[in-house]
Amino acid sequence: MIKGLIADIQRASIHDGDGVRTTVFFKGCPLSCKWCHNPECISFEKEILYYPEKCIHCGMCDKGCFSGARVVCGKSMTADEVLSEIMLDVPYYGDTGGVTFSGGEPFAQGKFLNACIDKCKENGINCAVETSLMYFDEEIFKKLDFVMADLKIWNSDLHKKYTGAGNEKIIENFENLNKLNIPIIARTPVIPEINQGIDKISAFLKTLSNVRKYELLPYHPLGNSKRKALGQKADGFSVPSKEYMKELEKYAYVR
């Protein structure tokens, strides 16, 4: 029986695609974006996040942390177990909602992702994947209702500096998805210290007929509390001003 490593399952999400969605966060990612707001999803291993301000010094750590000071991230699950969680939200999906497999990178656990999608499709559930596009599995992509993917930085050297890998494969896979005519919601995280070439990203995406929307997402420091809990340093990036976002909004679009 195939099992996958799941970081979290978030119910009733409204930020991960169309309608009300259940977001399943896979653990492990081939990228290591310095601003990642889910740093606990980068490693392919189970991890412990420690929040000292929640510790009540009960001395019961070996039996499990009752105060939430120590949180284990990473649970081995079967596709049926994931489906059971998803089914709890089905009454709220309506005509547009469904499940979004996110992470981390779902395609890094391709066989398990495929099993989860098959279970959902057997139950008539709309399926999307939020992906780095560092992988391309045509069989899985063809089963999806839409894809959410970032094109973070246009310059490949800068992309490698801040994410750990160049962007050539990502750009190639945007083009591959266009050939399959699979709808994409494309996005770029807006980080004043590093963003270059958003105009070029927008122009490239406009050449792809399957990109139905291009969103610019302002950076937020949400991931820093989790970074600290993992024993890592804060990323040090700045939240873009409203004026800065206003200057860039001409590059975003909806078709």
Rg calc: 19 Å
Structural class: alpha/beta
Large-scale geometry: globular
Major beta sheet, specifics? 9 strands, mixed
Number of strand elements: 11
**Strand order in the largest sheet:** 5-1-2-6-7-8-9-10-11
Q: How do the SSEs run, as a string of H and E?
A: EEEEEHEHEHEHHEHEHHE
Domain 4Fe-4S ferredoxin-type: 46-75
Domain Radical SAM core: 15-255
Protein name: Glycyl-radical enzyme activating protein
Pfam families: Radical_SAM
Describe this structure in words.
InterPro entries: 4Fe4S_Fe-S-bd, Aldolase_TIM, BssD/PflA/YjjW, Organic_radical-activating, Organic_radical_activase, Radical_activat_CS, rSAM, rSAM_sf. Residues 15-255 form the Radical SAM core domain. The protein has 255 residues and is α/β, with parallel strands linked by helices. The protein is built from 8 helices and 11 strands. The chain has helices at residues 79-87, 110-122, 138-141, 156-163, 168-180, 198-206, 223-229, 242-248, and strands spanning 3-13, 21-26, 47-50, 70-73, 75-78, 98-102, 127-131, 146-150, 184-190, 211-218, 253-254. The longest helix is centred in the middle third of the chain and has 13 residues, at 110-122.
From the structure above, extract its key features:
alpha/beta, 11 strands, 24% strand, globular
Helices and strands in order:
Elements: E1 3-13, E2 21-26, E3 47-50, E4 70-73, E5 75-78, H1 79-87, E6 98-102, H2 110-122, E7 127-131, H3 138-141, E8 146-150, H4 156-163, H5 168-180, E9 184-190, H6 198-206, E10 211-218, H7 223-229, H8 242-248, E11 253-254
Parallel strand pairs: 2-6, 6-7, 7-8, 8-9, 9-10
Antiparallel strand pairs: 1-2, 1-5, 3-4, 10-11
Helix pairs in contact: 1-2
